[in-house]
Amino acid sequence: MLYSELFGKTIKLDPKDEISKNAKLLIKAGFIDKLMAGSYTLLPLGLKVIKKIEEIIRSEMNKINAQEVLMPLLHPKNIWNETGRWESAKDIMYQLKKNEKEYALSFTHEEVVLDLIRKHVFSYKDFPVKIYHFSTKFRNELRVKSGILRGREFVMKDLYSAHLNEEDLEDYYWKVAKSYQKIFKELDLNSKIVEAGGGVFTDNITHEFQVLCDRGEDTIFYCDKCDFAQNKEISKIKGNDSCPKCKGLIKTSNATEVGNIFKFGASYSKKMNVSVLDKDGKKQFIHLASYGIGLTRLIGTIVETHNDEKGIVWPKNTSPFDIHLIDVPSENSKISELTYDIYNELIRNNVDVLYDDRTQIGIGEKFKDCDLIGIPVRLVISDKTDGKIEYKERNKNETILLSKDELFKKLT
Amino acid sequence: MLYSELFGKTIKLDPKDEISKNAKLLIKAGFIDKLMAGSYTLLPLGLKVIKKIEEIIRSEMNKINAQEVLMPLLHPKNIWNETGRWESAKDIMYQLKKNEKEYALSFTHEEVVLDLIRKHVFSYKDFPVKIYHFSTKFRNELRVKSGILRGREFVMKDLYSAHLNEEDLEDYYWKVAKSYQKIFKELDLNSKIVEAGGGVFTDNITHEFQVLCDRGEDTIFYCDKCDFAQNKEISKIKGNDSCPKCKGLIKTSNATEVGNIFKFGASYSKKMNVSVLDKDGKKQFIHLASYGIGLTRLIGTIVETHNDEKGIVWPKNTSPFDIHLIDVPSENSKISELTYDIYNELIRNNVDVLYDDRTQIGIGEKFKDCDLIGIPVRLVISDKTDGKIEYKERNKNETILLSKDELFKKLT
């Protein structure tokens, strides 16, 4: 893609009214635009990142035999009344009335999933059921000062699993937890599984996936030796205590939540009367669990943990492009010609390249924009490179000169 | 995929409270589920179809140099006040209030797009701007008796183009119209470009893409010789008149709208003060057009126009699977073995296959479900096929027996 044609270029000034690093960087680099507090447009660069994250997650969901669906966002009041959450979750839920009918915007989908199951699954042989979707969530968050880490509207992947009994749920629950850890690792995020409260979802203990991060909104206690970790909100221990599990040292850190998993048992299905006859002909209420990953929040977390003083430093598999190609405006017209050649040959080789072809922008500014945007590899062609191409990785300082052949050998 | 594991199987009874053919067939065949009037969940089969339609549209959008973004669904009141549509579109728009702030759910995105342009585009050289997204629309439709053809919540691809002047807009407008015709043709829909009114969008004439269809909600007049066509709502002629353009005969038909394109000129950008200095330094208000295709509505239209008394007859490129494989329960265990072999070999050859592996379902019911679901090719393996495979296309009556080699030659 030609940078001159890209919608959403870099912005020079720091955005007013943003205090979080992720929002500042993403806005300045042209990935997102703020419509209002807690609500952002994904510009072409931002959408490319989301699509890559989505593919990584979808591939893992399919591996654990979950099936993709798409559930509505506008829900009738009556379905929320069945579990009592029309009242109990009133604060977080956007509710509205139109032509004497009342609706809620989806902040989660347990009720809709259980309604689907009671309408579509009639035999114990059809359990477990595992369905997920990528869709928009709306939550009336009071504090939205963390940029894209906490939005009032955001994209989420939510998975729901329904089981005949607790043991089967327990098995799958930890299978999903493992799958989530794989996803976060692929996204180059070091996540910890942390015990936490259930908010408007459940009174049970839930598990959050927390990424250590200075500017995270949560505080967690974790053991430096074993996998013990708790959210401060529910913890009875504190920093420097000894670990209740292994006697290691408990550390304290800010962290940002990237995923959350919940065991509901049969609580919701009893309220909604979702049951099936088991193989002995006995009525069993369905055991439900749900599992969420915030995609827009992941972009924010990657940026919070992958940046330097010059800008974003994308991991390879979530970068909007593979290559940032720059040519230096010059009187020697051959340079542009060579750059266009390289550009087209990269495209032919399925290398996704952003070419900063702007003619009235100096090399200094192009380098600055390139570092701000943060694509893993920068290629420069100028008078000084003498027919060769200068290759530099975003997270390294050294540059090397490569011939065209050497370049393609390295890249493809 | 094994049919025994699919979430969303066929349903025997006709759904109560649905009068449209598309909703009846899609619900019975397991593609969609109704949450409430005008709002449906896409089950795995339905989502697979939507994804295929989405890819066909995305590929065409990229060919006309449009860039994909994702804009929010919940909008602040103030942005709708800028154009006056907070009041003028009050009937169709869902509005809500939370913590003393007022919001609207997106029924369209012109205001958000113009806001993006005034914040991100500062030079005449950066026009035209062409951005699109796939996202959810909410419209308070009073009559929702047409199944998935008219929803209160639905998935839409909307494209917006912004230009320095009317001529450039006019050029691109017809380029998009051509691109839309290509899309509908690829979806095996015979669409006509029909002059229509602009509703809450504009007082100008707009153009609809209408597919002739007995159960369509619109009535159109069209010439049997030339491309003249008008929606009854704005037309001054009637059936059997002579064509005002070529004197051909005017015909009348029910039709269903699958796309709609609008020229706004500078009307909205004047209200929102979106302008740029042209190359002579003169302030120009931006000329805007928008272009919509309803994806969920397309599924409904394809089903309305592609069915027979037995069920749906999917076109190849939007069918949820390439092949519907059936084996006949038998005491000869070799049959199942052969079927699994074929099933796995099809998958290895990237043929997307739905295998009805249910053991307690008779062949009659399997055939019925197969015809209802409507995948283009049915393969049957039974005692009678004697090691060969019976091949039948959904829209033909004849069956042929093929050896494994012959089958793979035919399919891959």
- Assembly context of the chains: homodimer
- CATH homology group of the largest domain in chain A: Bira Bifunctional Protein, Domain 2
Tell me the name of the CATH class of the largest domain in chain A.
Alpha Beta
Share of residues in strands of chain A:
25-35%
Q: Which two chains share the most extensive interface?
A: A-B, 52 and 52 residues
**Known CATH architecture of the largest domain in chain A:** 2-Layer Sandwich
Q: What is the overall silhouette of chain A?
A: elongated
* C-alpha Rg of chain A (nearest Å): 25 Å
Domains of chain A, number: 2
Largest sheet of chain A: 9 strands, mixed
* Low-confidence sequence ranges of chain A: none
Topology, number of strands of chain A:
23
> What is the overall number of helices of chain A?
11
Classify the helix fraction of chain A into a percent range: 25-40%
How does the helix and strand content of chain A classify structurally?
alpha+beta
Would you mind describing this structure in some detail?
The structure is a homodimer of 412-residue chains. Chain A is of the alpha+beta class and 412 residues long. The first copy, chain A, has 2 domains: 3-308, 2-Layer Sandwich (BirA Bifunctional Protein, domain 2), CATH 3.30.930; 321-411, Anticodon-binding domain (Rossmann fold). The first copy, chain A, contains 11 helices and 23 strands. Chain A has helices spanning 21-28, 44-63, 77-83, 85-88, 110-120, 166-186, 267-271, 295-305, 334-348, 363-373, 404-411; strands at residues 32-36, 39-42, 67-68, 74-76, 95-98, 101-105, 129-138, 153-163, 191-196, 206-212, 218-223, 229-231, 250-265, 275-277, 283-285, 287-294, 307-308, 311-312, 323-327, 353-356, 377-381, 389-393, 399-402. In chain A, the strands form 6 sheets. In chain A, strands 3, 7, 8, 9, 10, 11, 12, 13 and 16 form a 9-stranded mixed beta sheet that branches. In chain A, helix 1 (21-28) packs across helix 8 (295-305) and helix 2 (44-63) packs antiparallel against helix 6. Chain A is elongated and about 80 Å long. The two termini of chain A are 18 Å apart.
